[in-house]
Amino acid sequence: MALATATTSRDSLIVVANRLPVHRVRGGSVGEWETSPGGLVTALYPLLRERGGWWVGWSGSAGGDARVFEHEGISLRPVPLSRGELEHFYEGFSNETLWPLYHDALRTAQFHRDWWRTYVEINSRFAEAVCSLAAPGSAVWVHDYHLQLVPGMLRSSRPDLRIGFFLHIPFPPIELFGRLPWRREILEGLLGADVVGFQTRLMAQNFLRAARAYTRARGAGSVLHFGGRSLRVLPFPISIDVDEFGRIAAEPGTLARAAGLRRRIGENRKIILGVDRLDYTKGIDVRLRAFEEVLRRGDLTTRGACMVQVAVPSRGGVDEYAAMRRLVEQTVGHINGEYGEPGRVAVHYLHRNLSRDDLIVYYRAADVMMVTPLRDGMNLVAKEYVASRPDETGVLVLSEFAGAASELRQAVGVNPFDVDGMAGALVRACSMPEREQRHRMRAMRRRVRAYDLYAWAESFLGVLAEDPPG
Ligand code: GDG
Question: Model pTM?
Answer without folding.
Answer: 0.95
